[in-house]
Design goal:
alpha/beta; eleven-stranded mixed sheet; two-stranded parallel sheet; 13 helices; 36% helix; 19% strand; globular
C-alpha cells in the first residue's frame, strides 16, 4: 500500500512547481492503490481524513474514485435537478409543533427551494416566539450534521435564553462526500453563485417567514463551516451583519485541493485585501482557534484578523486579555475597538486546544468542553452590531 502523506507531500511540491498534471496523476495513483475497498481501503480512507483534516481530501475522492480500479460501486454524485418552482420556504410553524417541548423552543427540519437550488436546514425558534429577533446561521464542519452541531455548540439553549432564531443548513453528501462546505472551490467563493448564493437565499427566506430583524443577521461556522462563514461575510455584506470563524480559514484562502491542503497546514498565500474588498462594507469578525490545532493551523485565524484590520481602514485600539477556565484551559483574547469603544475584530487563541468547538458539549462531535465558551462569546460579539 502506498503511503498517503509522502505522496501528498510530493504532489504539493509538484503543484508549487506548476506541474499540476503530474500532481494530479500522483494523487490519482495514490488513491487508486489505497482505496481498493476492504479493510485496507478503509484504513487508507481514515488515514486521508486524518492527514487532510476531512476538509479537502474527500473532494479528491469525488474526483478520482470513479476511475480507481477496484471501486466499481463508486459513482460521481448526480447533479440536482433544476427547481421548477419560484423561491419558496416552508413555513416553520407548520412543522415545529411536533418537536416542541414544554418551556423550550421548536426545532424543525425545513427545505429551501429556489432559482439557486435546494437546501435542507433545521430551524430553531425560541420559546418566547416574538417577532423582530436576531438570526444566527450556523454552518457545521465536515462529517457533521445540523443536529450534531446544535448539540455540540449548545446554541439552541442560548437562543431560548437570549431570544434568537438559529438556522443550521445541511450540506448533503451529493455536494461533498464528507459533507464539507466547498470553501476551496472558486465557484463557491462568489456572490450570486454556488453555495454562498444558496445559503444567502435560504437566509432571506427565513427572514421573510419569521419576520426576524434583517439588521441583525449573523453567520458562524466550524472548520470548513468557518471558512464558508468567512466567504459569506465577504460576498454578502448586505445580508450578514457580522461573522464568527472557529478553526477556519479566510475567504479566498485556496482555489483548489492542493492550495487548500497548503493553506490548512501553513496558512494562505492570498491573505491580502484587494481594492475591490475595500469598496464593500466592512463586516465585523470574531475568531476562535486552538494553538494546538493539527488540522487547520492557527496562523489562519491571524490572517483573517489581519485581513479584517486592513479592510476596515480606520484606526483601532487593541486590548488584550489573558485568562483561564475552571477546567484549567488558558486563552488569550485580543479585541480591536473603534473610537466608540465597539469591538470590531475579536480574536481568541485557546492555548493547548485542538480542532474542536471551544466550550462545546460532549454530546456533539469536535467539541472541547474545557472552554472558554465560544458560543456565548460569539453571540455577545454579534449583538454589538447591526446593519445601518
Amino acid at each position: 500500500m502506498m503511503k498517503i502523506k509522502p505522496a501528498m507531500a510530493r504532489a504539493m511540491k509538484l503543484s508549487r512547481a506548476s506541474r499540476m498534471n503530474a500532481a494530479n496523476r500522483l494523487v490519482q495513483k495514490t488513491l487508486a492503490h489505497n482505496l481498493s475497498g476492504g479493510f485496507a481501503g478503509g484504513m487508507a480512507r481514515r488515514s486521508i481524513a486524518r492527514s487532510m483534516g476531512g476538509l479537502v481530501a474527500l473532494d479528491a475522492l469525488q474526483k478520482y474514485l470513479p476511475s480507481a480500479p477496484g471501486n466499481p460501486a463508486a459513482k460521481s454524485p448526480k447533479k440536482p435537478a433544476k427547481p421548477k418552482k419560484p423561491a419558496v420556504a416552508r413555513k416553520p410553524a407548520k412543522l415545529a409543533k411536533a418537536r416542541k417541548a414544554p418551556g423550550r423552543g421548536s426545532f424543525a427540519e425545513l427545505r429551501y427551494e429556489g432559482p439557486e437550488g435546494s437546501l435542507d436546514y433545521w430551524l430553531y425558534l425560541p420559546a418566547q416566539g416574538a417577532t423582530g429577533l436576531p438570526v444566527v446561521v450556523m454552518l457545521h464542519g465536515c462529517t457533521q450534521t445540523p443536529g450534531d452541531f446544535a448539540r455540540g455548540t449548545g446554541m439552541n439553549a442560548l437562543a431560548d435564553e437570549l431570544g434568537l432564531i438559529v438556522a443550521y443548513p445541511s450540506q448533503p453528501a451529493s455536494a461533498n462526500i464528507a459533507r464539507c462546505w466547498n470553501w476551496f472551490k472558486p465557484g463557491d467563493q462568489q456572490r450570486d453563485g454556488g453555495e454562498p448564493a444558496l445559503i444567502a437565499a435560504m437566509t432571506r427566506a427565513i427572514l421573510a417567514d419569521t419576520d426576524a430583524d434583517a439588521t441583525r443577521v449573523y453567520v458562524a461556522g466550524l472548520s470548513a463551516g468557518g471558512a464558508a462563514a468567512a466567504i459569506l461575510g465577504a460576498t454578502y455584506p448586505d445580508v450578514y451583519t457580522a461573522i464568527g470563524v472557529h478553526s477556519g480559514l479566510a475567504c479566498g484562502a485556496a482555489s483548489d485541493m492542493m492550495s487548500a491542503f497548503s493553506a490548512m497546514r501553513n496558512g494562505s498565500r492570498n491573505s491580502r485585501t484587494s481594492p475591490d474588498d475595500r469598496e464593500s462594507r466592512f463586516v465585523p469578525v470574531i475568531t476562535f482557534h486552538g494553538d494546538n490545532d493539527a488540522t487547520v493551523h492557527a496562523i489562519n485565524s491571524a490572517q483573517i484578523v489581519a485581513k479584517a484590520a486592513e479592510h476596515i481602514g480606520t484606526p483601532l485600539t487593541v486590548k488584550r486579555q489573558r485568562g483561564g477556565t475552571a477546567a484549567g484551559r488558558s486563552y488569550t483574547r485580543e479585541m480591536n475597538c473603534s473610537a466608540d469603544g465597539v469591538v470590531q475584530i475579536e480574536q481568541w487563541t485557546i492555548h493547548g486546544a485542538g480542532h474542536a468547538w471551544s466550550g462545546g458539549h460532549n454530546t456533539g462531535t469536535y467539541t472541547d468542553a474545557s472552554g472558554p465558551d465560544a458560543s456565548r462569546a460569539m453571540i455577545a460579539f454579534f449583538l454589538q452590531h447591526r446593519l445601518d
